[in-house]
Amino acid sequence: MNELLSNLKQLLEMTAAWWSNLSLLFNSPSTIGFDDIYTLLVRWVFPLLAVGILVRCIPPLLRNRGCERIWGYLEVPGSIKIPIRHWEVSLGRSKLSDIVINLPFISRNHAVLAYSRDSWTITDLGSKGGVSINGQNIEGKGEVHAGDTISLGGAEFRLLAVEEGNDDLDATRRRTWLSEWGEGIAPGKTFLLLLLFQVLGAFQLYFTMPEETKRTILLTVAVFIAAECFYYVIAFLCSRKHLELELLAFFLCGLNLFVVAADVPNQLLKQLIAIIIGMVVFCILQFILRDMERARKLKYILAAGALVLLAANLVFGEVRFGGRNWINLGFITFQPMEFVKVAFVLAGTATLDRMLTTRNITAFIAFAGTCIGALIIMRDLGTAVVFFGAFLVIAFMRSGDLRTIAYALAAAVLGALAAITFMPYVASRFEAWGNVWQYANTIGYQQTRTMIAAASGGLLGVGGGNGFLVNVPAADTDLVFGLLCEEWGLIVALTAVLTVVFMSLFAVFLVRGCNSAFYAIAASGTATIYLIQTALNVFGSVDLLPLTGITLPFVSNGGSSMIASWALLAFIKAADSRSRPDVNESGRLF
Amino acid sequence: MKLLTRRALAILVLALAVICGILFFTVRYLGEASKWVQHAANQHLYKNGKLKASGTIYDRNGEILMETVDGIVRYHENPAVRAALMHAVGDADGHVVTGARVAWGKRLAGWNLLQGAYRFNRGLSHPGSDIKMTLDAELCAIAYNSLQGRKGAVGVYNYKTGEILCMVSTPTFDPQYPPDIDKDPERYEGVYINRFLSAAYTPGSVFKLVTAAAAIDNLENIDSTVFQCNSKTVIDGEYVTCPTAHGRVDFKEALAKSCNVAFAQIALAVGADTLQAYADKAGFNSSLEVNGIKTKAGQVNLKNAQRPDLAWAGIGQYTNTANPLNLMVFMGTIANDGVRVEPKLIKDSWLLRLLQTVVPRERVLSPETAIRLGSMMRNNVLSSYGEGNYRGLELCAKSGTAEVGGDRMPHAWFAGYMQREDCPLAFVVVVENGGGGSKVAGPIARKVLQAAVSRYAGE
Ligand SMILES: [Zn+2]
C-alpha cells in the first residue's frame, strides 16, 4: 500500500512538473523562442512514434511461419502425396527429419532430397539400406527427375513435379490471431510514421545545433529520406517479401544520423554515404543469395577476400583507440574486421546435404581460429568475443555437438583468465568493471558519464543536441546508448536496443521456414553477432559488462560498421521466403 | 529444417539473456538514476561542481526559506529563522545530509524520472522543483531562541496529519554567513548533525511510558498494586534509587512522581521479553522514514539483560537510547488513541491528502491502553509539573532526567502532547546535559506550544 502511494506520488509530481512547464509558457514574459516550444512539445512525440514503429513492425513479420510454397511431392505409390516445402528436406526415421518415414529398415538420417535450379538431387547419408533411383543404386549423390522412383532401403516413393497453377499458396495454411492482426497493419503507414519521426528529429537538431551545421543536418536527413522512399517504392513494386525489416533498419539508421549530427556533424556526409552503400550492398547480396549456386561461389570468394583483409590488417594496420584494427588507404580509412564478419558468417554456412554428410567442420574451425587469433594480436578483444560467440553458435548449428562446444567454451574461459592475468591492459578493464563510481574520473570515466547522461535524460530525454555526453570520447560509438538515453530519452533508447534484439529473434523465427540450411545458418550467425554486439555495447557502457569498444549495429557512428550491419541484414532477409499478403491482391502502396 | 529449428533455440537462450540484461538495467535505472544524476560531473545541473540553479524552499505559510536568484543562494531574512532552520534546509557545502538541499537534491535541482534534467527555455528554475515544507519558520525561531544556546533538539508535529511544524537542532549557525567551525570545536560540536533526526540519547524517565504501556496490558492487578519507596531498592545486590523517598505510591502516582523504585519493580514484573516487545512497538530499534530521510534508530536491547539491567532499562537507563523524533511520534501515537501517523516534512498536494484518508494506518497500542496512558500523563501535569505553568494547553506530558554517567549533568527531556481537538500537537524537547527534565526542558516546550496555540488553534 505504501509502495503504491509513493508511486502515485511520483506520478503526481511528474504531472505537476509538466503542467508547470506549460504554465511557464504562458506566464513567462520574454524570450521564448519557437525552438524552445518545439522541443517542449516534440519530446513527447518521439517515444510514442518510436514505440509505435517497432510495435507496428512486429506482427506483420511474425504473421506466418513460412513454407508457403510447395516445390514438389513425394508420392507413396497408391497412397498419399507428401508435399515438399523446402529446397532441402531430410528423410529418415528420426523425429527431427523433415519427412519422417517410420519403417524399421530406414536409417535415422537416411537421405537428403534437394532442389536447385529446377533439378532434384538425392544424397545418401551413409544409410544402411542404401538409396536407389529407378532401381539403380547410387553412391553418394544422384540426380532425380520428376516421375522417377526413389527407393530408400526398399521403401519406394515417386517424385512428382508441382502441377502448373497449383504451386503457389498452400491452402491449408493455418490462420492465427497474429496473422489476423498482422494483415491489418499497412507497412505504408508505418513508413509514414518513420518519416515523421525522422523529419521531427532533424528539425529538433536543426534548432539546437550551431549555425554552421544546421543546413548539413537538414540536407543529410533529406537525402536519407529520399533514399528510403526510393528503396521503399522500388521494393514495394518489385519484391514480394515483407518490408518491415528494412523499416526497422531505417529507424535505426535515422537514429544513427541523429547521433552523428549531435556529436560530429562533420562526419554526417560520410555516414550518409555509408548508409547508402550499405543499402546497395544489402540489395546486391540479396540478389546473389537468391540462387544457391551463386551463393556458394560468393562464400568462397568472400572467405578468400577476408583472409587477404586479415593479412593486410596485420601488416598495415593502424592503431586507433587502443586497437590496431584500422587500415588507411590514404583517401579512406576503414575497419577490415567489420567486413570479415560478413565473410565469417557465410563461411560457416552449408547446405543440408553437405551438413549431414560431412560432419567435419575443420575448415571453418581453422578460419575462425585465424580470425580470432588475428583479433587478439590486434588487441581487439571485444570483436574477438563477437567472433567467438558467432563461431560457437554456427558450429553448434552445423554439428549439433554440445560437448565440443562446451570444450571450446571452457578453453575460451581459460584463455580469458590467462589474458586477464598476463595482459595488463585487459586487467585494467576488468578492474573498473562493477566499481566505476570509485574510479569516476579515471578508468570509470566513460561509464559513469554514460550513466549520468542517461539519468539526466529521464524517460523523454533533454532533446536532440542538448546533451553533454557528446563531450566524452566515443559517445557516438561505444557510449551511443547513453547518448540516445540522454538526448532522446530512455524509451527511445530502449526501443532502439529492442529493435536490434527483435531482428535477431526474427532470424530465429525464420529458421523453420527456410528453403535451405544455408540461409538458416547465415541468419542464425547474423542474429548471434547482432545480439553479442548489442550486449557488449549497451551493457559495457553502463557497467554491467566490461567496456570493450564494440559498436551497436546500425546505431553507432562508423562507416565500416554500418555497411557490415546492412550486409549481415541481407542474410536475415534471404532467410525469409514468404510473400506479403497484399502482393496477390491490389498491391496498394499505402 | 526441423533439425536446425531445434538447434536455433541456442540463439533464443542468448536473446533471452540479453533481454534479461535490459530488464536488469531498466530496474537499476529506475532505482538509481536519481543518484547518478547528482554527480558533480553532470553538466546539466552543475557548473564547476556547484549546482547551477535550484528550486525554492518554502515554509508552510509560504515564507521563503531558501531561493536561488541568478545562481546566488539566499535564505530567510531573519537571522534567527536562518539559524533555526539550518538543519532543515541544509548548508552550502552539503554537510547536513538530512537537510533538504541534500535529501531532496534531485528534486530541487529540477530532475524527475519522466522529464530528466530537461528545462524549458533553459530556465534556471521551474516550479516543479520547488518544495513546500510543513515547518513553521516562526515557531522554529521561537524554539531556537528558547534553547538559549544550549545543545539539544525541539520537535512539534500534528499527530492527526503527521506534519512536522517545528524541527530545531542546536548547535547551529547562520548559513548565510557560515562561521569558522574549526575555531570553536566546543561550541560547534556535531553542528552538522540534525539532533532531532540523527541523534539518540539516553531517554531516562520518559521511557517509563513504554514500561507503563507494557504494565497496563500485561499486569492484571497493576491498579491495585501499591509500591513502597524508601528511596532505594536492592535487586540482586544492585541499588536502584530515587532522589527522595516517595513513600506509598500507586501506579498513577509512581508515574507522576517518576518513582524509580516502583518502575524497577514493574519492569521486573513485566519481564524482559514483554518490555522488549513494547519498546519495539514504540519505535525503538527501527528508524523512521520522513519523506525519504532515515532517522537514527533508538536502542533497547534486553537480550542479555540481568535482573538489575532490566530494572534500569525499565526506567530508561541501562543501554537504552531514544531518537527525539521517534519519541515524539510515540507521544503522537498515545495522543491519537494508539494509531501511529507517519511524520512528514513536505506538504502533500490535496490529491495525496485525499488518498491518505483511505490508507490504513498502523495501530501500535490498543485504544484503551492509549487513553489510560494519556490520562496518567495528564495527571503528571496536574499533580507534578503544575497546570499553572501550562495554562490553556491541556497538556499531557512526561519529563525525563537521563543520567549520563561521570560528572556530566543529566540530559533533560520533556515530551508529550496537547489534548486539544483544535490544536492536536505532540512535542519533544531534549537539552543535552541540561539538568532536571521538567525544570529545564519544560519551559521551552511551554513557549513553543503557547506560540503554536496562538497561531493555529481554531484553524
Ligand atoms: Zn521513589
Brief summary of the model shown:
The complex is a heterodimer of chains A (590) and B (459). Chain A is α+β, with helices and mostly antiparallel strands. Chain A has 18 helices and 14 strands.
CA-based shape of chain B: globular
Count of alpha/pi helices of chain A? 18
Number of strands of chain A: 14
The CATH topology of the largest domain in chain B turns out to be Beta-lactamase
Spatial shape of chain A:
globular
Q: Strand arrangement, largest sheet of chain B?
A: 8-7-19-18-17
How does the major sheet of chain B shape up?
5 strands, antiparallel
Q: What is the number of helices of chain B?
A: 17
Largest interface: A-B, 86 and 58 residues
Tell me the number of structural domains of chain B: 2
Q: Termini separation of chain B (Å)?
A: 80 Å
CATH architecture tag of the largest domain in chain B: 3-Layer(aba) Sandwich
Overall helicity of chain A: 55-70%
N→C terminal distance of chain A: 49 Å
Oligomer: heterodimer
Structural classification of chain A: alpha+beta
In terms of DSSP E residues, the strand content of chain B is: 15-25%
- Given this structure, which CATH class of the largest domain in chain B is correct? Alpha Beta
Q: Main β-sheet of chain A: number of strands, strand sense, barrel status?
A: 6 strands, antiparallel
Topology:
The complex is a heterodimer of chains A (590) and B (459).
Chain A: H1 2-27, H2 34-61, E1 72-75, E2 81-84, E3 88-92, E4 99-100, E5 111-116, E6 119-124, E7 131-133, E8 136-137, E9 141-144, E10 149-152, E11 155-160, H3 177-183, H4 187-208, H5 211-238, H6 244-263, H7 268-289, H8 292-316, E12 318-320, E13 323-328, E14 333-334, H9 336-347, H10 352-357, H11 362-377, H12 381-399, H13 402-422, H14 424-432, H15 445-457, H16 480-510, H17 517-541, H18 559-575
Parallel strand pairs in A: 3-4
Antiparallel strand pairs in A: 1-2, 1-11, 3-5, 5-6, 6-9, 7-8, 7-10, 10-11, 12-13, 13-14
Helix pairs in contact in A: 2-3, 2-4, 2-6, 2-16, 4-5, 4-6, 5-6, 5-7, 6-7, 6-16, 7-18, 8-9, 8-11, 9-11, 9-12, 9-17, 9-18, 11-12, 12-13, 12-17, 13-14, 15-16, 16-17, 17-18
Chain B: H1 2-7, H2 9-36, E1 46-47, E2 50-51, E3 57-58, E4 64-69, E5 72-75, H3 79-84, H4 86-89, H5 100-103, H6 105-108, E6 131-132, H7 137-147, E7 152-158, E8 164-170, H8 195-198, H9 208-218, E9 226-229, E10 232-235, E11 238-241, E12 247-250, H10 251-256, H11 260-270, H12 272-281, E13 289-290, E14 293-294, H13 307-314, H14 324-335, E15 339-340, H15 350-356, E16 362-363, H16 367-385, E17 395-402, E18 411-418, E19 425-431, H17 437-456
Parallel strand pairs in B: 3-6
Antiparallel strand pairs in B: 1-2, 3-4, 4-5, 7-8, 7-19, 9-12, 10-11, 13-14, 15-16, 17-18, 18-19
Zinc ion binds next to helix 11 of chain B.
